[in-house]
Task: structure prediction
Amino acid sequence: MQYKRVNFPRPTAADFYNIARKRVHDYFKENNLNTHANTEMVIKTIFMLSIYFVPYFLMVTGILTNSWVVFLCWILMGFGMAGIGLSVMHDANHGAYSKNKKINNAVSRVIWFIGGSASNWRIQHNVLHHSFTNIDHLDEDLDTVPFLRFSPHTEYRKIHKIQHLYAWFFYGLMTIMWATVKDFNQLNRYKRKDLLKTEKKSYNRLLTELILIKLGYYAFILVVPLLTLSQPWYLIILFFLAMHFIAGFILAIIFQPAHVMPQTTFPLPDDQGNMENKWAIHQLMTTVNFAPQSKLFSWYVGGLNFQIEHHLFPNICHIHYKRISRIIKETAHEFNLPYYTERTFFNAVSQHMRFLKQLGKAA
Result:
């Protein structure tokens, strides 16, 4: 079933979200803090870009030539690619990096260097995922290949019985799919669904932009290394795929345990497209935090282990999530609302695997 329109009940002045929003606003005002990036965020940006671009230039300039060292460079680039996606372009595409739209647009385009489209990403992530979290046919994070089942409402297939075993391999293919066919498929789908208007660009302009992005990316990431590195072409292709597999796997195991979990819900609208809960409560019921005490982990993943805070306040830079999480948690408890948290990242991944296995059973 395709839902053309979904309506959440209108919030009232005294409901959870407005109280939480006021308290968060007061926190920034009382502490004289800006909701956007600070010096710490700029340093992180430089670091994430460095672990992607520095190994690349060390290879193509001939400073590093040993095959094992070159392979290590590609591995580092995989971690850098994931870090850029999690900690840099993510905030910029949400408008959370800077209050200056031009800076946000410029930083968001770093996704071009890792093979993606900022326009497509904003539609899939900002418009669809954030607005309609865990709602079948609207949240595209649930709509994946037929042999993966992320929702109890998705059609069951016998192969799903062992998806908790093979899903991890396909997670590693996520960014290579973006870099090849997924962006083109998405652009055509968003044209049919009249979603391109959110980007205020025509289909022809976006298609031209997408083609140029892909040509530039493959010239940068494959053609130049093939022309400059001393390794055989097939090893370079293998290194390139290894980089993407690492990046895709990291991104998937951060995003999937945030929503596809045993405790989250997958609500559907009624026949008129009306949802039972208000949008903010819907976010609480469909989202899970994890590893809230792990500083280094949280630093690398761009604060996305505080996924609840991110979904409620996507326009706030992630460096503030840990501090405002106390406000959100206390407010949720005051209203007798859930605030799901897994103590460690390992617990979150284990619970995600458990839920994949649960979804692999016939109803």
In short: The CA atoms of residues 89 and 127 lie 16 Å apart.
